[in-house]
Amino acid sequence: MYVAVKGGERAIDNAHQWLAEERRGDPAMPALSIPQIREQMALAVNRVMAEGSLYDRDLAALAIKQARGDLIEAVFLIRAYRTTLPRLAASHPVDTAAMAVDRRISATFKDLPGGQILGPTFDYTHRLLDFALMAEGETPRSAPPSPVGGEGRGEGEARFPHVTSFLNRDGLIESAEASNATPPDLTREPMELPADRPLRLQALTRGDEGFVLSMAYSTQRGYGRTHAFVGELRIGTVAVEVDIPELGFAVEIGEIELTECETVNQFKGSKTEPPQFTRGYGLVMGQSERKAIAMSLVDRALRWQELGEDFTGAPAQDEEFVLMHCDNIQATGFLEHIKLPHYVDFQAELELVRKLRSEAMALQEAAE
User: Fold this and answer.
1) Which of 30, 81, 262, 296 has the least C-beta neighbours within 10 A?
2) What are phi and psi of 139, to 5 degrees?
3) 116 assigned to some structural domain
């Protein structure tokens, strides 16, 4: 990234001081606390954690406060801090089938085992401004507890099998083969193309939500010919386990909240595969269902080659286009560096334009 700049030290110090004043706002108003941001701006915190590749709600809230609400700047702060942290261990793959779900829905099966759990969602709100929220001290009603399978809060002890396992049982969807191979780590190794699916999924899960959303939307409009159903969308907490060499077995070190989406997509078959459904997959830190759904659509579009489909020239099918442009920190760095001093470059361009203009005018005068 382009982040270094030389200039007048006094002017830069003044700019930093002015920025701090603008960040604080009216000093007569109470300052936002980190717990307030963490608890009341949870979806923004989740996005910063996901795109920053660091699961820490307090640090994400701090970054949002420091960045004055600029989420991309907050992601940059989190990624920069992440580079200073030691790598202590590698966790086991999380078991999302054992997720303690808060939300679990399917657009393909109405009566799925365990039931539809609506959870906290904007889906059924009226998108009208609630002016009651402008009043101080409002107290929301608590969600009533409900049994597993009810349309409310899920029970953490239940195990919810993935919906696609029912299609897999009948051979109607491609099988998802487990692999013990260690995937590449995008946070420690540079992107290399062509990329295999694990690397693509890493890039998408930490990619800019708006970009991934636009790519997914383009597939729905026909640029990629991907017609998808949400097989299952689930949000909840999963246990994180690591091996302890001294003990000889894995222990649980905590829990993280995840959003997982698996889409079911049409597939007409190929020379080696019969007609069946195929999968698109999305997994994101925190509650971020829009990102998870979009990620699963783009994942499926990028799989055209391994499935033997035709490349239609759609942007979402172009691996290089998607993976090299989805990272908002790289994009922001290259975009914003052009506001830094380019005096020498511009003077060279200016002299070139003047020379070309004088030559063109000389030719025109000679022709007359």
Assistant:
1) 30
2) -120, 110
3) yes
